[in-house]
Amino acid sequence: MELLKPLSSTEALVGETATFTCQLSKPNKDVVWKVGDKVVTASDDKFEVESSDVDYTLKVKDCTLDDAGDVSLTIGDVQTSAQLVVAGERRSLTSPAMRHLGHYGSLTGARAPPSTYNNLISF
To answer: Domain-by-domain residue ranges, the chain?
Structure first.
């Protein structure tokens, strides 16, 4: 068994899903995923494990700052690991910090429709 594509470190914001993928030379059902020191089990709703032929995927759902750290996959004597980096807080337009943007405001600099500007000028 060879590791064709190792895990890569992944960044996610609080509340987002982080996805880790790797590829092995042969299909194998005896994979063990770990997040930190915790072995991922099928009964844990926090994680989603997928495999398709030689591709293996782990999704860490609804990331929290406590999820940050090592993520690893082990099959026999083959192991790959990477880091999960969880940063900041996910913000929505309904959060107090974002309400000041108003109806037409956005972080991307969206502006009011041109007809609004025309209504502001009168002679």
So the answer is: 3-89
Q: What is the CATH number of domain 3-89?
A: 2.60.40.10
Q: Measuring CA to CA, how many Å separate 74 from each of 18, 35, 105?
A: 19, 12, 47
Alpha-carbon span 51 to 49, nearest angstrom: 7
Q: Tens-digit pLDDT profile for the chain (123 aa)?
A: 889 999 999 999 999 999 999 999 998 888 999 999 999 998 899 999 999 999 999 999 999 999 999 999 999 889 999 999 999 865 554 444 444 444 444 444 444 444 444 444 444
Q: What pTM, to 2 d.p., does this model score? A: 0.70
